[in-house]
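Re: zinc ion structure - here you go.
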Amino acid sequence: MKAVVFERHGGPEVLRYTDLPEPKAGPNDVVIQVKAAGANYNDIWARRGLPGMQIILPHVSGSDAAGVVVEVGSAVTGIKVGDEVVVHPSLSCRTCEMCTSGQEFFCREFKIWGFQTGPNDGSHAQYARLPAVNIVPKPKNLSFVEAASLPLVLLTAWRMLVSRARVQPGDFVLIWGGAGGLGVMAIQICRLFGARPIAVVSTEEKAQKVGDLGAEFVIIRTKQDVYEEVRRITGRRGVDIVFEHVGQATFPTSIRCLRWGGTLVTCGATSGFEAVTDVRFLWNKQLNFLGSHMGNKAELLQALRWVEAGKIRPVIHTVLPLQEVPRGQELMEKDQTIGKVVYVPDSA
Ligand SMILES: [Zn+2]
């Protein structure tokens, strides 16, 4: 089968479109023909290499996939060849105390599929093998491309806002990277819960798009001062929740923008990990800082129900042939995307 592989870390030039053996299902596995595979920032982290984290080489990236089941392991029930499915990208043992209490992200064997797994085990290939428990039905109202764009960002944003920050009707929510894959999900989740999203974007074009998606307020950070705009929008009160994933570049502003008793929830730091915190604000304003990482299968299924109900829509920036993974990663690294990049393998 064809796949996009890298054997050493570096820029997009280390990615090779090449042949690999097709995966075979173990007793508890399912093999899918990948009809479409989503792009995520994880793909870029893995390719560059992360200090303190082992990326297994050779590596096939890709944590999101939608496809058709082509092989089912001997012990698998409830899934059959021909089923149209998407992937739940959190792998864990499924039997420990953490897993059985719905906290699979605390499992000692927790891994994000296509990021921490390997060798050669992600969705940027014509076929993929996964444990059957990581297969969920594709929302019927979505194409494969639309479905492949969703799980990782939808699950991450859902857990951040719903399970962790407990978003409430009327909450002002400041959303960094409003036009990115996570941001477009966060905006729609806020609307679903009756909250008031304030999306931060970099261009007029992105402002238009996030407005169409339901952002009640939009701040263009290249032209406007985010803190001053937040004060104006909220009547100097500050926001109830900040949706963080940028880190170093935005963290001090995020803290300033919070109302007294407000909540910052973060799932990443694309601009750098050493975010400055003036701890006086943390205690004096009695702020809540929450970490969030992926989510559990129940959260994904819950979120996908709202997709099937048409309340959360996929947002696709572009669809590229699988050979063009390097170009997709460059678009993301240059912050040129609105929504998601999706790859389609040949003959899919
Ligand atoms: Zn476990």
